[in-house]
Amino acid sequence: MKKKAIIxxxxxxxxxxxxxxxxxxxxxxxxxxxxxxxxxxxxxxxNHRADTQLAFFGSSVGEVSLNANLIEEQTGKSAYNYCxxxxxxxxxxxxxxxxxxxxxxxxxxxxAETFFSLSKVDQLTEVDRFLPYINNExxxxxxxxxxxxxxxxxxxxxxxKFIVAKQGYYKAAALGLKEMIGGKSLLxxxxxxxxxxxxxxWQVGLDELNKASKPIEIQLDTIALQHYSxxxxxIRKKGRKVLIVIPPIHEDGLRLLxxxxxxxxxxxxxxxxxxxxxDYSMSDxxxxxxxxxxxxxxxxxxxxKFSKHLALTIDSILMTAKK
Amino acid sequence: xxxxSFQFLVFFPLVTLIYFVLPHRYRWFHLLxxxxxxxxxxxPVYILILFFTxxxxxxxxxxxxxxxxxxxxxxxxxxxxxxVLVLAVFKYYNFxxxxxxxxxxxLQLPIHDLPYLHIILPIGLSxxxxxxxxxxxxxxxxxxxxxxxxxxxxxxVMYYPxxxxxxxxxxxxxxxxxxxxxxxxxxxxxxGMRLMLWGVFKKVVIADRLSIMVNxxxxxxxxxxxxxxxxxxxxxxxxxxxDFSGYSDIAIGSARTMGIxxxxxxxxxxxxxTISEFWRxxxxxxxxxxxxxxxxxxxxxxxxxxxxxxxxxxxxxxxxLWHGASWNFVIWGALHGLYSITGSIFHRRFSFMSKVNLVxxxxxxxxxxxxxxxxxxxxxxxxxxxxxHLFSAPHGKSYFAxxxxxxxxxxxxxxxxxxxxxxxxxxxxILFVIDWFIEGGYISFFDKRPTIVKxxxxxxxxxxxxxxxxxxxxxxxxxQF
Lengths: 323, 481
Prior knowledge:
The complex is a heterodimer. Helix content of chain A is 51%, strand content 7%. Chain A has 14 helices and five strands. By secondary structure, chain A is α/β, with parallel strands linked by helices. Chain A starts with a helix and ends with a helix. Chain A is globular, with a radius of gyration of 22 Å. By secondary structure, chain B is an all-alpha fold. A two-stranded antiparallel sheet of chain B has the order 1-2. The A-B interface holds A 1-2, 4-5, 8-9, 12, 15-16, 19-20, 23, 153, 157, 159-160, 162-165, 167, 170, 200, 203 and B 6, 184, 186, 189, 407, 409, 420, 451, 455, 458-459, 462-463, 466-467, 471.
């Protein structure tokens, strides 16, 4: 009886482990090949599918402001917007490094920064997007710096991904698998090239909120700055140009960021041979609410205008470099 | 250590495995050590509080047994006082001080700013204190012999499955089982693990999912009104049931794997046709504790009708206070007391009101849920805001309107997108059907199914827990008590 019980228990566990392994591998496979939302961006880089001449990295500020198609049209260089909403530099640092390591075509990496990009971060945002790439050393290391314990568990504790995975992960997996079963090409090309246009107007009630809000203190994190500097150096070593930009911020938002100068100075100090800094935070756009839907995010119209400006800058930098 | 934590996933199989490998004479020590580790996962130093009550009650038990006449009462009183003192200091001191300071300020008394204690409430304090008290009371009554082995007595108080949130056990049930030798029993292992699985499902899939909507409304009562209050309160009723009965199932199940049977704590309470029946089905170990150690000693049903009603009200209010040091809990208890009193009057005159039928079940369910408002609301003010607006429609909308838009312009229902909202609600009938299946004795029918069927169901539940479970919430609601 005891022997039979032990055999049954072991068998139950073995089947369970097998089942969970199959499920998690299938999910990972689905997510890896999914074109769903921002998962696609991580997938393009994680699967080494993307190799554009111009690569834009940043958070939502970059995601909504850099119209890759328009820039591509104006510069004649292939471009993609890899900016991921809700993330700070430390979280997408691994993606930049990975891209820089495998890319052959890349000529310039554009960093779209905002007031929180280089501040301290101790919690990962939507880590689900990175789950299939936990074994990718570059991506893992950059995420490990933010939440070491979580990353360790994800890598070494079997099936821990289930605990962390949220709705987006399952949705991405389902869509990825559906595309595969439907015979569609995996990771279909995104017609907007990573750009997310926001057809929105200045948010209702934001003026009152701004009036009531206290100024935001910008705290630059030393470790983030070290990583930032070293990543720029890695890109430079590959003979690529680096352009750091602060996209437009509406003047109402600027009033809430009295020490934005601190960020400007820090980013400007990064300038050296092959590394350029351009500040658009106080551009013409900043005075017009028509171009924004909130303090630091431009709408589709604002993105068009800003991208045109940026395309000219990119063009001139690359032309000068050629000469 | 939380039952729904990763640590417990390692702790439980390890402790159970070692338990069966060890010779019987070492098992008590192993379980005691494991229980210490379990408790110390929260705030390690608080184990000293447990040791304090254990030492007092251990010696009190022996002294009560060895003494005669008046001395026995003295030792019992001392033991109860020591336990109540611990509760008073750690749980009720700040509550008392707040009330005293408020009263003294309004009456302009000279002492009106007594200092607060800046301490965190030891986890499960009310549970193990009550369990410790039941021991000395039972020894005093002669229902159980004083435990001479300090290890076994410590284990009685600290046995990890029921240490922090019950069931609040009785010595005559647990102590003999702790002494007894339990050989490995596969059927008990399976039945225990199955109960644990169901408990975890109730906690992480149902309770924690519903809590998202409940918290949204109860944390921002000013942003909602009418039907949102009603729905959030009903969902809280289901949430707290799944949370607490889920904990009890895991506790009972994990003890069962080691061959130890703990008392049942829930029996489909929302199918009760009267409030007194509800209390025979809800948190059974606590309601029987109050019945055995407070209600009956106060005279039970042998006193006059008026005295009986007053006693009932007092007991329910104390029960409320047991849950938390706040007037909201006292009101919650008082409401149940009033329900019970009114019920007893009506049921005597109109027997149809206590018959099990849908109308009575629904009426009881509504009354219980109304009381939950005071239990869940953060303050008396927010509870009253909800009570007074239960039937108000949102401005310019129909009473049942729940649809809102978030900052990104997405449609939400109590902060969730429609499909998440609807799927969370769908969990409720699933809960009642499975509860009915388990309680109705259909488990034996399930046991007779082929292994492949049973295992498929288990795997399905495990996957459902992993995929649909919410793992980022803090802990079980009843831990705070």
